[in-house]
Design brief:
The protein has 2 domains: about 1-45, no CATH class; about 70-250, Rossmann fold (3-Layer(aba) Sandwich). It is about 35% helix and about 20% strand. It contains 10 helices and 9 strands. The radius of gyration is 19 Å and the shape is globular. It starts with a helix and ends with a strand. One of its GO terms (biological process) is methylation. Its EC number is 2.1.1.297.
Length: about 250
Amino acid sequence: MTTVVERLRASGSVFAEDEAALIAESARDESELAAMVDQRVAGLPLEYVVGWASFCGLRIAVDTGVFIPRRRTEFLVAEALRVTAAGAVVVDLGCGTGALGAAVAAQREVTLYAADIEPAAVECARRNLLPYGGIVSEGDLFSALPDRLRGQVDVLLSNVPYVPTDEIRLLPPEARLYEPHVTLDGGADGLAVFRRVAAEATDWLMPGGHFFVELSERQAPVARAVMVEHGLTAEIVEDDDLGATVVHGIYTRR
């Protein structure tokens, strides 16, 4: 184990001891351990190496090529849980691994739907949401959902890509080199995919339904204005400890 820690530390790992322990725990034998250490030293994100990510106290399966859930996004889940009642219809749109839906469903008995345009993400999310009876569909945003959900959604979670195209090159190598750019690229100002979701949100939400999206601090005022433009009341909520910014919209039918 000492050699593993030394190799990880030499490759730039700040948490070499913790990473070594996780890799050792996940490896089935010495041969696999060596291969996993080689992958991590080469720069492959730890979550891809071990096959899971810790999120809201859950082990979320993460397949190579699927967006890795971030710890800051736990704040979005916490905000959603404040308004999610038992029996609610919850949609995780652009779900990736399905981490958001799983984290909510682990705390509340809900009817859960999720959708993503990437086949690898859909396969991964199905595994993560199976324990909660989640229904996962493949397709482009709302088009993937059953039409019967129109006007029936209580809580819409949508952690869609929000990195401006020109800023992808500035991301840490683990994201920039290994995660699919479609899961990161939010267009010129980072809000292109969000705008598409906001434009249709009120078609799917129940009156009084909630829409949560994670964005950057500088994008949040624009996103709030977009929600208002599309018939939602909206607020910005932040968590300084996690460095997280969430815009929360409520559909108040007039």
